[in-house]
Write a structure and sequence with these properties.
single chain, alpha/beta, 7-stranded parallel beta sheet, 15 helices, 10% strand, binds zinc ion
Amino acid sequence: MPLVETMTPKERVMNALTGKPVDRTPVANPTNVATVELMDMVDAPFPNACRDPELAARLAATGYTELGFDSVMPYFSIIQESSALGCDMQWEEKDNWPTVRMYNPIWKGPDDVEIPPGFLEHSDNIAITRSIEILNRELGDDVAVIGKTMGPWTLAYHVFGVESFLLMTVDDPDLVMRGLHKLKEISMLFGEAQIAAGADALTFPDHATGDLVSGEYYRRFLLEIHQEMAERLKVPLILHICGNTTDRMEYIAQNGMASFHFDSKNDPQEAMDIVNGRISLVGNINNPETLYARGPEEVRAEVNRCMDAGVNMIAPECAVPLATKLENLIEIPRAVKAWHDEHDE
Ligand SMILES: [Zn+2]
């Protein structure tokens, strides 16, 4: 039977995040879906769209107005808090991601961690909180506004440097735990500021990725902290970790968060079987091969595979490459609707 939509995009996303029924599977974007084409369309290019609330809101809105997704998300990168902490930044140009320069970390170790006064008022944090206010005012009745606050593991890469932090986890795990507990208060502060600004949900990227650390690392260093974050931040949280995470999904399913944004390196059916309803899953359309390099037909095949597995919300697996073709992104909601047309009774 043809699909009849009875919910607003926002109701659909919030219901999926809180385990309630939906009229159709939502298409959400826990991480970036902005592309160079969209930047040109609304005259909101990187890096300014990462640093100016009006531009950030305008670019984020295209996720709904141009792509037809059920959510919008104005935090495109992963470095806003790190910039506010004083990390050495490379802001790049329109076609490239801003990054933290890793060779000159601001802190040597956990004892140096200190939240600078005026952290939330730093212009790169204001760019996010104020853009959430704008989106909430303009689209908030209809569309889910998703914010994003970096977890302590990701912050540790930025403030200590990836290599020295990973060495620290081997040399002195207790010191690392103390550092993560201090850094998690940064995640809290920025998360609470976004909730106050009107975020309906928060993505929580914490890059304990499959290619860098083991599943046992997740259990040992992060599970309890993530459970605490899920308790203390009062909106649904969406954990984001890239790569193959099948070996840690059993633990992720116990973290108390609403959802896990998972990568196409994980088989959707196998992932659904492991989490078994304890956490919802969002993802996992491949970026570098499918969305970036192939066409709508291949996108549809991947959407169908996720829909057949019962994945709770459909999305690109991670921040999309900035040169991704619009027709491929637009195909995601189209394919979801077509799947429902075919399968709903
Ligand atoms: Zn990612």
